[in-house]
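Q: Hi! First time doing this. I have a protein sequence and I read that you can turn it into a structure. Is that right? Here it is:
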Amino acid sequence: MDYEDGMPTIKNFGGYRITMYFEDHNPPHFHIVSPTQEAVVEIATLTVAAGSMAPARLRTALEWAARNRALLLNKWNELHNDE
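A: Yes, that's right. Below is the predicted 3D structure, encoded as C-alpha cells:
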C-alpha cells in the first residue's frame, strides 16, 4: 500500500486514486481523489456520500470497488482498529 499525502492509497488509476484516512468516521467508506476533485463513497452501497468526480473516473473507480469490496472492508478495519 502506498502512502501519499499521509493517506494510504489502495488503488492508483494514474490521474486519480482510491484512498482511506486513518481513524476516519463511520460508515466505512473510501475517497476517490484527483488533483481537483474528491468523492466519498460508502463501501456497503457504493453510493457517493459527498463530493464529486468526473463521470468516467467515478465509473471506473466504482467498477473496481465492486470487484474489490472485501479488500476495501479489510483495509477499513485495518486502518480503524476493527471499530
